[in-house]
Amino acid sequence: MTKAGHMSAPTRTEQARSAQRRAQLLAGAVRLLLGGGIAAVTHRGVAQAANASPGSVRYHFDTRGDLLAACVDEIERTRSLEAERIIDKVSEGGPFDRGSVARMLLGAYYGPTMDDHAITGTFWSIIDCGRESPELGQLLGKYRQTATRQLERILSACGYQTLQPSLVAAVLDGSVLTATVESLSPVAESAVADLAAILRMAEA
Fold this sequence. Notes:
The protein is an all-alpha fold and 204 residues long. It is built from nine helices and no strands.
């Protein structure tokens, strides 16, 4: 407290600790979302996952909507960073074979982690969050536009200028859905194979 009786401004160390704690809580929330869907993402659930108090979670994320929006932001941040890394790679020149292009497009669209848990968790969390509230739906729509533009840049750099990025997105989403329903594994390989077939047709 200051002499005037007001709370003093947090120090840099306190700010750093607060930011670190928020990051830990958010990481726990994202794990819950990808593993158990939106029903698993509650203040109490995140507190248990991050070994924190519910009050600490509420301090950083006032409402459950704030918590879910932060998860969506974090998933998109990771995905977009991977997409930009891939764009830089293809901008340096190829050639890249069809399978490599398909795999890069998958990474740009779903993020760098290619295991079944990450891909299917991302797919279903996007669907669930999109239905949760109009605000989350609008946020996801904005991020979808960003992903589409990034896919377009990769396709163009790899010589597939005539292939619509929206078709690539639809093929990847459809592949993940089919693999989930039919218990196919690894999901990434199914998606890459389906997309490689579309790339082959675009070359004809």
